[in-house]
Amino acid sequence: MNSRDRVATALRREEPDRVPWCEIHVDRALARQLMGWAESGDEAASLETHPYTARESRDLADHLGLDSLSYVLRAPVYAHKHAGQDGRLFYGDGMIRTRGDLHLLDLPDPCDDALYEGAAAFLEQKGEYSAWFVTRVGIFSTTLSMGLEAFSVALFEDRPFVEEVLDRYVDWSEVVAERVCAMGFDAYVSTDDMAFRTGPFFSPAVFQDLVLPRYERVARHIALPWIIHSDGNMLPILDDLAGVGIAALHPNEKGAMDIVGTKAAYGDRLCLLGNVDLNILGMGTEADVEEEVRTLIRDVGPGGGYIVSSGNSLAGYLKPGNVMALAAAVRQYGAYPIAAGA
Question: Residues 74-97: what's their mean pLDDT?
Answer without folding.
Answer: 87
